[in-house]
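hiii so my PI (J.) wants the whole complex modelled not just the main chain, which honestly fair. so below is everything: two entries, each one labled with what it is. i double checked the lines twice but i was tired so who knows lol
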Amino acid sequence: MTSFRLPTGGLVDRNTTLRFQFDAKSFTGHAGDSLASALLANGVSLMGRSFKYHRPRGAVTGGSAEPNALVELRTGARREPNTRATMVELFEGLEAKSQNRWPSLEFDVGAINQLASPLLVAGFYYKTFMWPKAFWEKIYEPLIRRAAGLGSAVHAPDPDSYEKIYGHCDLLVIGGGAAGLMAALTAGRAGARVMIADEHARLGGALLGENETINGKPSIQWVQEALAELASMKEVTILPRTTVFGWFDGNIYGALERVNDHVATPPEYEPRQRYWRIAAKAAILATGAEERPLVFGNNDRPGVMQASAMRGLANRYGVAAGKSVVVFTNNHSGYATARDLTAAGVNVAALIDSRANAPKLNAGKVPVLKGAVVSDVEGSRNVKSVRVVNADGGVEEIACDAVAMSGGFSPVVHLSCHRGLKPVWNEKLAAFLPPDTGKELVAAGAAAGNMTLAAALADGAEKAAKLLTALGFKPKTAKPPQADGEPYAVSPLWSVQSQHKAFVDFQNDVTAKDLPLAAREGYKDVELAKRYTTLGMATDQGKLSNVNGIALLAGATGKSIAQVGTTTFRPNYTPVSFGAFAGPFTGHHFNPVRKTPMHAWAEEQGAVFVEAGLWYRPQWFPRAGEKGWLESVTREVLAARNSVGVCDVSTLGKIDIQGPDAGEFLNRVYCNGWSTLEVGKARYGLMLREDGVVFDDGTTSRLGPDHFFMTTTTANAARVLTHLEFCHQALWPELDVQYVSVTEQWGQMAIAGPKARATLQKLVDGITLNDETFPYMAARPVQIMGGIPARLFRISFSGEHAYELSVPADYADAVIRAVMHAGAEFNITPYGTEALSVMRIEKGHVAGGELNGNTTAADLGLGRMMSTKKDYIGRMMATREGMTRADREVFVGIRPIGQGQKLSAGAHILNVGDKVSLEADQGYITAVAYSPMLESWIGLALVQRGNKRHGEKVRVFDGLRGQHYDAELCDPVHFDPENRRLHV
Amino acid sequence: MSDQAQLRRIHTLGKHYVPGRYGKPVATPGIRISMVHPVSIVSIITRAGKTKLLDAAMLSKFGAELPHPGGTMQGRAVTFYWCGAEQYFAVATGMAEGALYDALRQAAGDLASFSDQSHARMMLKVEGPAARKLLAKGTPVDLHPNIFPEDGSAVTQMAHVGVHLAADGPNGFVLSVFRGFGESFWEWLTSQAAEFGYEVR
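here's the output for the full assembly
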């Protein structure tokens, strides 16, 4: 293998040799190499196959716009498709594989697509694979997907970690080239907080690849001095390997820092990537300009590169792109390449300048052909020669193994367009310039169309100074550094008549013929042409191709380039991994987990937990020998009904409500009255939405004349507090009322059953619990266990003689253990949400299934709670015709008729004899349970006029499980309808 | 059980809180974390039109007015943190159960609504040279000393959990979250602190 490493030069560390593999072959390179430069140094120019035609491709750029040299990097779970070889920093042991080829890169069966290329023109899949229709999903699509691959993703979990971080600065400088460094220096010297981000490992931008001087010194030396000065400034943050990928509302920027992409595996404790959200007072867009390819025959052959990339290869990496190079240009860039390559000892066979009246520029000893063009490249997997059409029409063939091309420069305007503005066409520069984005983001340097080094340096300093002055800083205005350089002049050349395929978009295999075709077929709008031809799609988003494509579309439609305009620029500027977006919030960290203060105790009891929102609640407590949850739940219910059970109800929302108007506030938010509630008493409250539908329920207790303690359902805790905030702030700001969540202050447990009082009596200090001292619905502060302040509520969800005991959360663990100890003689049994649910269904208490966002208070049999003596949220709307219609689905109980027949929640109810249809639907079952007390399945339902149909036989239709059975509607209070047990 | 033992408070992390050195082995840990426990926290919400009277009452009883928005005021044995419009946390250590709540109600029972939150929040002190960098991984609040000074107080979010965050010395912060999120938040905080090396005190 021939070495293309130049004997001297470049910024690579020639003393450090790194071994790496490409397609299982071993190579070496140097520290400071990119994967692309290292491969080229080893004479490997074929790096991949194209998307559609499977044409051989090599690196065409030296940076992030690379459309061709996409490889799969690393192996195993760390394998990453579509990494740009031009951006991959070489590290010891690097393994990469080419993509989109089979069986090998050298011999690719898919290349046969080229022969079928007349069928594969723009829009081919809309035309070719239309018929027969049934073939699309099973045959055509899998076939196309296999053939047109851009690498494959890994199914294994990502072994690395990703981080998220917030950044703040006065000035964010996007891009670390000449303009960016000057902007950062100006801001840093003025004492501003500065962040400067650059997508490459080293800051310096184009200066790293150029052979220029600043203030008489090599430009690289100026870069190093600038970086050293920036590094010494306390308020300056330098972010190499960081791509600012999006500009968002509020002058927020998204940035991806590739912290450890340049090593085989991240060091312990370090993330692979860090996702930045940067809030900047102002930002400088110093992203430079991207060199445009020229469109000529076989311009996609490995060995054809951007002129700037080719001299960067020599200047930065010390690598020759070939033994003999032809340069094709329409501006000064080609001349710089000719000079730099010659200086590096590479033969430059000719410089072809398409401009007949090109200014006289220094090409060294390289012969210059003015007014000539390269029409075609010859060679299949590499470059063998170019066909040149001279100014006089004569054709000559020039042997070479590499071609440098320059079609002019496109400022990298993307970020400035992320919030909806369109770039502005500039005829003189033949380029789109950033729109006027105001003072939040200002372009400087080549990104703003200042194409020479001297202009970029001056512009970076000037624009930064202006922004900083507006922010109240006093930047010093120093004379900008001096730099030489040719003035930028370009004569557009959008395509060259050729014999072979001439590519506009390398990544999507869009040729010069595809755009006129799109226009002919009616896709004349730039957005339509993009979709039809795929121009500008995929990972590079048309960074190289869009301007040439737009110009060709303009030509085909008879419009100007300005009239055609660009497609929409959207974040992200370059691809961002899903891992970075997810950050550390993966696996069980996807959502935060919320645990009650009795969680550890419940765990010790062997609880099975269920997620209730973010909370983990004990669902049931299995015991050895029990065969399944039903047996455990039945035991828990029987224990609570026959003796005593205890249940953690800490997750209920708890809101402390105080103030002189607290009572009035409750009167307005609840549909039932609160004026008559005595201090020391609890009351069930029902809250409606403004539209009259039931919102939430719970008990609220009066702890003092101006002090209430509200409870909400677990599910609606946050929503109710938000509702209270809204009502107070927007509807009745005149009320003097204060409220705050105290959900987490209290560990709360329900102690239910005939032995509940006897159990509690052992714990409370100084009172004898009986119906006089602590009657039903009493709610009072008590002291327990010799000094713990607590609150005791004689309320019941289970229908038993029950209490809820509230203790400051830090004591809850000790208290639940003390309760268990006190109830031991009664065989006190912990019960979970399932037993809780069984008991509430037995008692016909409404819960989530019935509070479903459709039901009114009347629907739920709670219509009498709606006060007629006061106004409250939902009163007016609850009386609307539709809300009070006689045939509404209302709350009713249901029991199966057949012995041992189960009920299923969600099943629909039909009149006996009706066929299954939407029209015949009478309602549905909202909740079911096996009732240990009734030894039967029971349910709750919402059925048309259900409250008037107790005793009626109905048909249950469960389409999901394919079951039909008979059932009987009944009183929803299945058990103890007289509520005797509350008072035992 | 003696009465004393029964009254001992158990913080939300329980056995998950183990003092020691963790994360990257470094000579000086970038982060030091300590649990502020047992702690007294009372939320204060000013009643309508009582702002000035409440300030006066707090000044006379605790030696400090309530802080301005985004601020903290150090009183005698109690610190007041701003935590919303006309809302504050009063925080103290070394006080008996309910004592801070009682003292505040005594001082200004009709000027503000007080709610005892002493058990509702897990409060941590996070300090050390990397404290700002660590917290920047969670909060969008700018913690630069010029922006968030030593008397700064903010209500924010970290790792999807609501956090009250206040400065505590030049390189220190106190933060508190609802206790139910304590374990989840602890896992996040310590995993993010690992790269700096951290000490649990």
